[in-house]
Description:
Elements lengths: L21 H4 L6 H13 L9 H8 L3 H13 L3 E6 L4 E5 L2 H7 L3
Antiparallel strand pairs: 1-2
Amino acid sequence: MKGFILEDTSAKRDFKGIWIPKEIWLDHNLSPTEKCLLAEIHSLDKGKGCYAGNKYLGDFIGKSKGTVANILVSLRKRGYIEDLSINGEERHIKAVPFVALEAVGGS
Length: 107
């Protein structure tokens, strides 16, 4: 949808934009969508992992929650993210530290 801006409804987050770490931005093994999703996961991680659901992440990057699920599976298989905990109600994922990203195929 042209001109659509997702408003930040979280009182806990003072969103001012997105910063993409160079290790993600310069990694030619990642698509632009994967880069945005990985940067958002990294942004939401406050040391305890990212607990955002597929719907939130999909709304943020303009993709369906099914597409997000597929991207996360791919990122997980390629070593870009890891699961910290998963139960029936929530999931915590973490972007792999940047030193490890360089070994996966980053800059």
